[in-house]
Fold:
Amino acid sequence: MLLNKNTQLSNSKLAAYSAPAIPITVFAVPFLIYAPPFFASEMGLGLATVGTIFMIARFWDLISDPLMGFLSDRIPSRWGRRRHWIVLSVPLLMIATVLVMFPNYIPGTHGNSLYVLLSLLFLYVGYTMLTISHISWGAELSEDYNERSRIQAWREFANLTAMAMVLLVPAILEQTGSAVTMQDKMNAMGWYVLCTLPPMVFIAVRNVGEKKYVKPAKVAGFKEEVRAFWENRFLRRIVIADLMIHLPTAIRGSLFVFYVQTVIGMPEWTAVIMISYFVAGPLAVPIW
Structure:
C-alpha cells in the first residue's frame, strides 16, 4: 500500500508501525543493564575488558549509523526505501541474538573477548539496519507536523511499554527464590527476541505502506550533507539536546545492576526497581 503525503494513519496502523519496538527495545536499556555484568563476571572477561569492548562497539555505531542512512536513502526496492531493510535485518538480529545471549551453548566462548567483540559488532549491524530504517520510515509517513508528532508518540509509547515488558522477564526470574544467574536472564531475554521479532516485523511491513519513491534530480553528497547539518543551528541544538538526554541514560544503564547489587544490596529486586522507572514513561507520553 502506497501512502500520500497527507495520509492520516488510523490507530491500528500506528500500532502496527510501532510493533517492531516490542522486540528491538531489548537491545536498548535492558541489554545494557544486564550484558556488562554478565560478560564481566560469568563470561570471565573483567570490567576493564568489557568496558573497552562496549566502547569499541559504540564507536562502530558512529560509522554504521550514517552509512545505513546513506544506503537506505539511495537503495530502494519495490516496497519503498525502508521496509526491505527492516526485513533484511531480521535474520541478522536473530543470529546475533543467539551469539550474544546464548554463549553458554557455544563452545570456547568463556573468557573469549574477541568472540564477544565480534558478536556485539554483528549485533549492532542488524540493530542499526532495523532502527535507522524504522525511524526514517516513521518520519516519512506524513508531512503534517501534528501527524508526525502523533506517529512518534506512538513509537515512543511502544518503546517504553516494551521496556517494561522485557524487564518483566528477569523480574519474574529474580522473584522465584531460586539461584538465578545472569546467564539465565540473558537466555530469557534472548528467547523473547527470537519469539517476537519475526511476527512484529511482519505486522508492521504487511499493514503499513510507504510513500511512492521519486528519485530526486540531484542527490547531495556526504560533504554537502555534513555542511548542511553544520550550518543549521536549530538542528545542531536538537542534536546537542539529544546527546545530553542519552548520555546520562547510557551511564545509568551501564552502572545500574552494579549499583543495586553492591551498594543497595538487593540483587533480587534489580528488574522490579527498573520496571517502576519505565512504567512512568508510557503514562507521561499522552501529556507531552
